[in-house]
Amino acid sequence: MSERRKKRLSASEISSFCDQIALLLNGGISIYEGTHIMYQEMEQKELRKLLKEIDTYVKENNSLYEALEKTEVFPSYMVHMVKIGETTGKLEEVMLSLAKYYEREASVKAGIKNVIFYPVMLFAMMGIILLVLVMKVLPMFQNVFKELDANVSESSSNMMWVSMFIGKAVAYGVLILFVIIAGILILNCTRKGKELIRQAGNHIPYVSRIMYRIGIGNFVSAMSLMVGSGLEEEASLELAGGMISHPTLKKRIEGCLANIRENVSLEDALRENRLITGMNGRMISIGAKTGALDLVFEKLSKKYDQEIDHSLGGIANVVEAILIVVLSGIVGIVLISVMLPLISIISSIG
Predict the structure, then answer these.
(1) How much is the pTM?
(2) Are 274 and 252 in contact (CB under 8 A)?
(3) Which DSSP symbol is given to 8?
(4) Tens digits of residue pLDDT in 64-82
């Protein structure tokens, strides 16, 4: 298998693809013609190859979902939903919903990256400054102190070496932490690495709460899409549960699915398993009675998106403030470790 096939499309690329398919269908253009048009008009080399591959599969009398499945670059959830759309004759509606779903996913990922990017860059800059201090500045002062050591008191000499030790220890500690962060970022570039990081995040208290909120947002967004496509409640929950990695959320979805199989209504099952509670649960109940359940799920999805944005923004502000204070303090400690012995030596000589 080629390296290109191993690389999955990003959420924004999938959203754009779904949007274009929906636009072609809305214009009365068949999938048979539409995939060829998309292939001809695509300028980006890698995506052009992918679209040509899809077009070839469609020309071999494969359905769109079969063509997408054979490329092995699209998520199984998307392929499954495209199959439902083709089976029910609602492919255009499904593709529009998928475009919104993956646009939301791309937005959430962008928000997470923004939260991480500035602190990491700040940490990197401070790490470089500390590296220069440890590798260049501190050795220079050490040489000066060695030359002056014979002319200073024992207490000044002790202060000098203790301060130098503290300064180096703090600097090297920050550099080690920076290497760990860099390792995590590199690990995040691989599929298995992302899964390991996700599993680790599920067990870190505050991070786990944020990931749970993101997971519940993905859940209601997926339910909106599947219910609107005419998929049965049990099948919708099974498919949604397969997309969720957070252990607590996954367990609650499984409990909800068990209730549905016992003929409990969806709104009661959601409330009983604490998936959607309070006013949100009330909205689900009203939506189920009025036949607008998909619209209610869509509104809840937008609501959770706002909460996620607010949470991520709060984290970013707190992390930035903590990093500025802590790293400024660390640089101050390193500088003081140099200045205190120097002041002590000058006083002793005087």
Answers:
(1) 0.65
(2) yes
(3) P
(4) 889 998 888 888 878 888 8
